[in-house]
Design goal:
Helix content is 77%, strand content 5%. The chain has six helices and four strands, in the order E-E-H-E-H-H-H-E-H-H. The chain has helices at residues 16-40, 46-74, 78-114, 119-125, 136-169, 177-204, and strands at 2-3, 9-10, 43-45, 128-130. It starts with a strand and ends with a helix.
Length: 208
């Protein structure tokens, strides 16, 4: 900052890249606190908790994998490949990474409230995890099922977003956006499933 002759204090304009970086750090800290709090207290939709943690810890890896795929298969410049990977992942994270499990867990909770005899099964479908859960194996099984469903939804959504970006800038590519996203998301979702298995599945699976 600096002081003008009239005594007023002026702050220099905040660099956009720095502002975005600061916003990302704050958002990551908040998401980690929410996820850790839910997990530590033994309650919450497991798929949503896992996706929060995957976003916080793995988003850079996921973007890097897909950017590499775009650059290698579509012959894009590195900077353009990174931008494309960032934007398609932003949309898929908001809509599928967070929105999809939130919808599932919310609907499951509503069903459990309306029809109490099916509450335990409904909560398992919604991937809810908490102390005294009746069907932990079923809960974990549904996390795997929803990850597979999310994989297909992500491919379709990211293909749509990427195709739209390419049409806007008249991008020529030797392969289609759909093919690129099938390949890129196959790699990233295999990593996600492996991460869930090692980080949650093994620990939460009943020992008896």
């Amino acid at each position: 900052r600096h002081h003008c002759a009239n005594g007023a204090t002026h702050w220099p304009p905040l660099n956009l890249a720095l502002a975005l970086k600061m916003a990302r750090i704050v958002t990551t800290i908040v998401l980690l606190m929410l996820a850790a709090n839910a997990y530590a207290n033994g309650g919450g939709p497991l798929l949503l908790i896992f996706n929060f943690m995957a976003f916080a810890f793995g988003s850079i890896v996921i973007i890097a994998v897909e950017a590499f795929t775009y650059r290698a298969l579509a012959k894009l410049e590195l900077s353009q490949a990174i931008k494309d990977a960032f934007w398609v992942n932003l949309w898929s994270t908001l809509i599928i990474g967070f929105g999809f499990p939130f919808l599932i867990s919310s609907l499951a909770g509503i069903v459990g409230e309306i029809y109490e005899p099916a509450a335990d099964y409904a909560l398992a479908v919604g991937t809810w995890i908490f102390d005294g859960i009746k069907h932990p194996k079923l809960t974990i099984a549904f996390v795997y099922l929803w990850l597979v469903v999310a994989y297909f939804l992500t491919v379709f959504l990211e293909s749509f977003v990427l195709s739209k970006r390419w049409r806007k800038r008249k991008q020529n590519s030797p392969v289609t956006a759909e093919r690129i996203n099938w390949i890129g998301n196959t790699i990233t979702y295999l990593l996600l499933i492996l991460s869930f298995t090692l980080g949650f599945g093994v620990e939460l699976w009943p020992k008896s």
